[in-house]
Amino acid sequence: MKVLLVDDEKHVRDAIRLLVDWKHYGIDTILEASDGEAAVALVGSEHPEIIMTDMMMPGMNGVKLLEWLHRFAPDAKTIVISGHDDFSLLRHTVKFGGTDYILKPIDPDQLNEALDKAIQTWLKDEEQRHANRELNIEVNQFKPIYWDKLLSALIAEPNTYEPVADQLERELHLSRHVTTCRVAILSLDTMEASIKNKFSQNMDLLLFSLINICNEFLVPPQRGYAFRHLHNSNEIVLFLWSEPSQAEELLATINDGIRTALHARVDFGIGREHSFPSQLKLSYQEARDALRQRNLKSKETWIHTNWLPAKVTPQTLTFHQFEEQIYLALRSGNVEQIQEIVQLWIDAIRSCEVITPEQLEHWWGEYRVMMRRWVQQLLPNSREEEIHPLLLEDSVATIITLDEKGILSLSLWQQELTRSLVQLSKLHLESQHKGNNVIFEIASFLEKHYHEDISLADIASRFYLSREYISRKFKQEFEVNLSDYLGQIRMSKAKVLLCNPNLRISQVAEMVGYQDEKYFSKVFKKMSGMTPNEYRKTANSI
């Protein structure tokens, strides 16, 4: 902590130095000034927390210094040490933030008491300033989320504007006098491959970077604002309310900035100028349609509008035309046959003069419906977690892949289709093999009868096999012995039952095949690392 002594008489400054145990108060730096001008210079460079000043000095006196400190160093605490018992000076001290007024000759006790009071006041204020800084940091972290939510709602509900109009004008410079606006959309679903690959592990960082770049061009000149659309997490929406007729040129400039920062360009869809805020949704829908209806086979522009005439893809080509051929290839298990039929499909798409994102989504929707039907037919007993990777649910992100020039590349889509179909065919063959394998029949029996008292001898008798053979083959197929496999099934079922607080531990034990609660608890802890009660508490707290 620093203190500044301001007095034109050096012996007074020396006396103050001697009358205070500075270390006791945590003060490690004592500065001196002989007049107000010198004090101002030191305050500007050293920022002392405590200032002790005389009132009557040549040049800039204490009265003027107090006024300057009140304006330019309001956090500092000031103690006046004066030889004049003048009420007007005392009133001036109080008016401009002085914490105490001490008369000369200086009383040591009064000086130390005033210093202690000033320090405690400064510490209390600093604690509040720190709390305010922390609060401001927290508020600033949540502000983008707040604006994302508010502006996303404004698209769908124009009546949400009036309650926040003043705040929008104050913080985003969206004047109440704005009567029209255009909406533009930047979609991550339709970005170049290079930028997608660069941020593949952190798409939130990509969104953050793109929004910041957009707002560098929008916010300072007060031309608009970019935000993340909460109802479509892969969309960045731009409200453009200043000079709407020049919005296309502005988006082109923003795209140049993205190119400079991220070495890639993006596609913007933009709607027409409509009334604000009542017709924001209309402009937004036009922008969205512009992106969905653009031709991915050519790159004539990065800024797309939906009110210009465009060629429409004929609706004659459908994925259903290839369904029977693909299904036969799946049942055959022949990888080359699967690759050939996928190639036929891709060639058919390439022959289309126009391919839009909307058309790709339609084809992809057809494929997903057929894939689910094939899975049900070929893998009737499969679990959802096993088949989910085959379904390629993230449709748009998977199918709309652009090359470095922003033109559609079907190669990745072809690879993904082939991979998922080959995997389904492989699982189908394995399923057939498992159906004919007695060891898998035994595993299926355990799955259904885990709650019964089952021994290896019982299994051997039921399936007319020796215990040794069953033990050996079971361990080869599942890499665990039969008893451990049965225990895993029971513990898995027990964990589900333990999530029900109405079931006693003894009931859970009995339901999964253990008559002895203590033995059940012992086995459960061995296999899961915690007791049934501990697991129940952990599971119910999540």
UniProtKB/TrEMBL annotation:
InterPro entries: CdaR_GGDEF, CheY-like_superfamily, Homeodomain-like_sf, HTH_AraC, HTH_AraC-typ_CS, Sig_transdc_resp-reg_receiver, Tscrpt_reg_AraC-type_HTH. The keyword Cytoplasm does not apply. SUPFAM superfamilies: CheY-like, Homeodomain-like. Residues 440-538 form the HTH araC/xylS-type domain. Pfam families: GGDEF_2, HTH_18, Response_reg. The modification 4-aspartylphosphate is found at residue 54. The keyword Zinc does not apply. Keywords: DNA-binding, Phosphoprotein, Transcription, Transcription regulation. Residues 2-119 form the Response regulatory domain. It comes from the Bacteria. This is Two-component system response regulator YesN. The lineage of its organism: Bacteria, Bacillati, Bacillota, Bacilli, Bacillales.
